[in-house]
Amino acid sequence: MTVNSHRVRSTRKTQIFNHAGCFIEGWYWAIPSSKLKAGQVKPVTLLGRELAIYRGTDGKVVALDAYCPHMGAHLAEGKVEGCRIRCFFHNWQFDEQGKCIDTPSLGKPVLVSVRTWPTAEQYGMVWVWTGETPQQPVPFVPELQDEECNIAFGSRFVKNCHPNVLLINAIDAHHFNTVHNLPLQIVFEKRELNQNAITFSNTTRGGEESFLIKLLRPFYKNAVTYSMCYWYGSTGTVTLGPDFLHFHIMFALRLIEDGKTEGQTIMITRKRSGLGGWIFNRIVLWLTQQVGNYFAKGDSQVFQTIKFDLKTPTPADRSILQFIEHVEGQKPLLWGTWESAKD
């Protein structure tokens, strides 16, 4: 990509990237699966929209708009009955499609319904799709696609910047040298998996004059393994490590009020069989968390104070510009209403 004045101007006039009032239609984390037992309902505010999320006795998760169409009572105050939910206030009952199927005071159901949203569970989280019908899968680690995995939750955090901005840190090639003192030049190669997912992978060896790189080199056949996969501009998975053992970290982010970010880190590894496999995975997940903590430690304060404005991009910022372009090509929704931002 040529870095020139035209590119600078187009970057600074983005319609979606780093916009405090909108996000990309997609899958977003709502609540840890372990926090939602069968027969429980929880209130969740997701991307400015209030939801009631419950798990039926069949184990399936249902997400619906929070307020009863009768008088506006919050459905999370109600109770789960089988695979349905009954409003606490006047006992109206709704099925898993949001349709009212029982109105006790009238003897027959009222012809009303509550808006429901597609749900899925992966990596220990309940995910909600913010549109009608899912167009793409729940975010996953490309290397672990279709694999059964073990996970461990890391820190949950809030940052004073948009999720789009927080995610570019992982592909800011130059900051690996200036902040983390990495003794080699990182060059990323992009690959689009689909309209909503893009990967950036390191393609360089380099650093041969560094004692650290010479020490690590026997564990890498080619380039140092470092790959970032972005989903919906708000969730990222990083894969790094020697050829014989890769570490996988997911940064599940969502936009909150005032254009800030709420995030949850998830350590992920391929499930291994037997007691030995279980013990090994506990060690791997612990090591993964230490790796994540190391890289996060140097950058944390920057994203509490940053006012992102890429005024003067350099060749090292090529991957950031590519990510911004990728975000701009997706479907934006308005924070709070989840209506199309293009309308």
UniProtKB/TrEMBL annotation:
UniProt keyword annotations, A-Z: 2Fe-2S, Dioxygenase, Iron, Iron-sulfur, Metal-binding, Oxidoreductase
Ranges of residues in domain Rieske: 28-128
PROSITE patterns: RIESKE
SUPFAM superfamilies, per the entry: Bet v1-like, ISP domain
Stretch forming the signal peptide: none
Keyword match tRNA-binding: no
Organism for this UniProt entry: Allocoleopsis franciscana PCC 7113
Protein's UniProt name: Ring-hydroxylating dioxygenase, large terminal subunit
Lineage: Bacteria, Bacillati, Cyanobacteriota, Cyanophyceae, Coleofasciculales
GO molecular function, one term: metal ion binding
Pfam families found in the cross-reference section: Rieske
InterPro entries on file: Cholesterol_7-desaturase, Rieske_2Fe-2S, Rieske_2Fe-2S_sf
PANTHER family recorded: 3-KETOSTEROID-9-ALPHA-MONOOXYGENASE, OXYGENASE COMPONENT, IRON-SULFUR DOMAIN CONTAINING PROTEIN
